[in-house]
Design the sequence.
């Protein structure tokens, strides 16, 4: 039995792997909230320790500032017509039935305040213009529902104007962060990055240790020595994986090592920045930029020729943002930014794997592919993982068309929601994905995101889908034929 | 001068004044909004995948959005049909209105005459459908508020009075046109003494006043949505979005 309150979760079955909109259950998830940030984490990352005394004034100041700085926010606050197209698209609504989890209802929480203080109609006739004061009650709603959004942008794909609720959620979180409202999980992770270089808080010595351990382990298993280099000055490639790859998703980490070994490319990880993931995206611009800068700094320190982003979803959104956030990347070899899946496909097109792939190695696996939100909706990365899987697997099956590619569902744990106190939300949000996977009867769920790889196994267990969740790269490297002598 | 003439003169002046005021608010409001939008930077890449990689592709994507509502089509076919018919009919009807304030009237407008009434009905029915939908579908009902009903009711009322004034209680076309051309050439003359026409006209003025301060702004905003109008060029030649307000990190 589940160890958490299951009342927010809708248990209706799916039809052919696709969920229909459930009956509305008002306030179904209104009680599920993240633990608030603590001073030990918020102070070091430049946020107030607690709600500041003049919070209302400060929040509106921040709001005004964001309106001045971000066209997307301004346009998206104005032009929504509440057509309702998005209302059955959010996995958190499909899983909870709480109408506040309609993307439009979520955005309206911010829009009501926007109208009240920043539009002539709302200032003059708040009652008639669907405007609302920014009071305690509203702030509470912001905290709950903007932390039940995973910034996955699925709603944007179905909006006639492409209104991106992620922009709205990010703005709301930025405003909240500025007045001392944040979650423990997100702030803790960001604080850990500044301390240790990665989200998990792995110290330098442990990272090196683990890489050595993996070298021995893999050699024992395969008889071939694959290197897991750390902090090697002058390597060609700096790999920025999600740090979870070195501890939880080791198959993916081994995949990187085998791939670079096979290609004969010198590579390294960095203990200054052994993390591609960037929880600044889920908090505020200042930390987004500061965390992301570590990647460029690490690459400069190690004198590498290029940076390759590992299998991590929102890290890739950070990757796409990198030239904008942290300056031109022209000291590196193009193309940049560069994702490991794109790199593999480029190598494949150059013929690097010609006659070196034994597809039968994956014959026990019936593979399906889960598009993580950020690559599939923010990073132009839809075909590449599929190309890799098709090249090395005989049994590849797609999930229903409305649940893949740019219409993919979030795993339920993205956007800073991968924390245990909101387990009901995570399991509810993971439901559409779980139902689609169940429909395929696949036994291997491949994906290129560390958050998905942490969230999906739990969601699959909860929804009773027997499937292994793992990376794309290790499908390839399991099928590669290595020269044993090297 | 008797009382009714005096009152009518006052009413005429009021209507003419309101017409200019509404037009002023409409134009200035829109320019103010447009300037605000254009002045506000889009500080980072925002294109939704799969995004076009060329500028021409991005223009094509926005043009497609404006003309065919593809995202709505993917999402909800009945809503798409209602909304698309509503907007196409509205566009055609607006075009046909050139008949009332252009001289000479473009040939294309005259060709439309046989279907004009049908367009009016189609528009009215589409507005009714969208209104019904808001109240009948629980999810739509939940998110619909006063401004949503108001905009539809206003447009529906404009359509209704418009149809009546053209095909039932005719307003005399020459009077209407004199009045409109007078307003446009800044030599206003008294409006036609036709209550239904005046109601139609006042409702249109209300719409113009309301437009720049409401969700009707989507008509312009659809061109300015960064997730749709940006090409994805980050990896091609390392395209940077230079962020004008960005600050250096210490």
Sequence:
């Amino acid at each position: 039995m589940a160890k958490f309150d299951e009342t927010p979760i809708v248990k209706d079955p799916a039809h052919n792997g696709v969920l229909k909109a459930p009956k509305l259950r008002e306030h179904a998830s209104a009680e599920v909230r993240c633990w608030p940030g603590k001073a030990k984490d918020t102070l070091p990352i430049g946020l107030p320790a607690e709600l500041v005394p003049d919070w209302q004034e400060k929040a509106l100041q921040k709001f005004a500032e964001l309106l001045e700085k971000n066209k997307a926010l301004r346009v998206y606050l104005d032009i929504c017509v509440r057509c309702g197209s998005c209302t059955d698209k959010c996995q958190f609504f499909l899983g909870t039935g709480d109408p506040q989890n309609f993307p439009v209802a979520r955005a309206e929480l911010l829009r009501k305040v926007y109208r009240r203080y920043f539009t002539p109609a709302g200032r003059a006739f708040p009652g008639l213009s669907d405007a609302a004061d920014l009071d305690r009650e509203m702030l509470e709603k912001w905290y709950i529902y903007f932390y039940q959004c995973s910034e996955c942008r699925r709603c944007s794909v179905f909006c006639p104007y492409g209104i991106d609720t992620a922009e709205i959620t990010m703005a709301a979180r930025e405003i909240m962060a500025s007045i001392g409202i944040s979650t423990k999980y997100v702030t803790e992770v960001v604080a850990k990055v500044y301390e240790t270089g990665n989200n998990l808080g792995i110290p330098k010595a442990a990272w090196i240790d683990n890489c050595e351990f993996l070298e021995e382990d893999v050699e024992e298993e395969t008889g071939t020595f694959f290197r897991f280099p750390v902090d090697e000055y002058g390597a060609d490639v700096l790999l920025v994986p999600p740090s979870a790859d070195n501890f939880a998703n080791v198959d993916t980490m081994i995949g990187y090592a085998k791939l670079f070994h096979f290609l004969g490319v010198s590579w390294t990880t960095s203990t200054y920045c052994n993390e591609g993931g960037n929880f600044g995206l889920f908090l505020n611009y200042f930390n987004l930029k500061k965390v992301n800068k570590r990647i460029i700094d690490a690459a400069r320190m190690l004198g590498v020729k290029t940076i390759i982003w590992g299998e991590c979803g929102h890290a890739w959104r950070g990757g796409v943002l990198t030239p904008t956030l942290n300056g031109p990347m022209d000291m590196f070899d193009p193309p940049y930014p560069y994702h490991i899946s794109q790199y593999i496909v480029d190598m494949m097109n150059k013929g690097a794997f010609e006659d070196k792939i034994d597809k039968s190695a994956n014959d026990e696996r019936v593979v399906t592919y889960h598009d993580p939100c950020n690559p599939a909706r923010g990073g132009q990365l839809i075909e590449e993982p599929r190309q890799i899987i098709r090249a090395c697997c005989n049994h590849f099956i797609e999930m229903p068309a409305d649940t893949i590619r740019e219409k993919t569902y979030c795993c339920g744990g993205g956007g800073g929601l991968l924390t245990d106190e909101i387990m009901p939300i995570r399991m509810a949000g993971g439901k559409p994905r779980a139902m689609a996977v169940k429909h395929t009867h696949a036994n291997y769920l491949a994906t290129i995101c560390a958050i998905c790889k942490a969230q999906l196994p739990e969601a699959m267990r909860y929804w009773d889908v027997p499937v292994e969740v793992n990376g794309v790269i290790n499908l390839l490297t399991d099928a590669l034929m290595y020269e044993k002598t090297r | 001068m008797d009382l009714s003439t005096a009152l009518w003169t006052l009413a005429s002046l009021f209507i003419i004044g309101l017409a200019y005021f509404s037009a002023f608010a409409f134009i200035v409001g829109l320019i103010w909004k447009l300037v605000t939008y254009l002045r506000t930077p889009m500080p980072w890449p925002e294109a939704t995948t799969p995004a076009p990689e060329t500028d021409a592709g991005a223009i094509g994507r926005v043009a497609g959005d404006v003309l065919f509502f593809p995202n709505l089509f993917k999402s909800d076919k009945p809503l798409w049909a209602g909304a698309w018919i509503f907007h196409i009919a509205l566009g055609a009807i607006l075009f046909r209105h050139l008949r009332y304030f252009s001289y000479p009237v473009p040939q294309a407008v005259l060709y439309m005459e046989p279907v004009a009434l049908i367009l009016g009905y189609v528009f009215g029915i589409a507005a009714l459908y969208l209104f019904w939908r808001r109240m009948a579908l629980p999810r739509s009902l939940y998110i619909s508020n006063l401004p949503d009903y108001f905009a539809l009711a206003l447009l529906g009322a404009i359509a209704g009075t418009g149809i009546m004034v053209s095909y039932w209680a005719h307003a005399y076309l020459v009077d209407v046109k004199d009045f409109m051309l007078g307003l446009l050439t800044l030599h206003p003359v008294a409006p036609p003494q036709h209550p239904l026409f005046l109601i139609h006209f006042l409702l249109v003025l209300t719409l113009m006043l309301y437009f720049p301060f409401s969700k009707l702004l989507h008509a312009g905003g659809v061109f300015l949505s960064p997730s749709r109008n940006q090409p994805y060029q980050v990896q091609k030649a390392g395209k940077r979005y230079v962020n004008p307000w960005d600050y250096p990190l210490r």
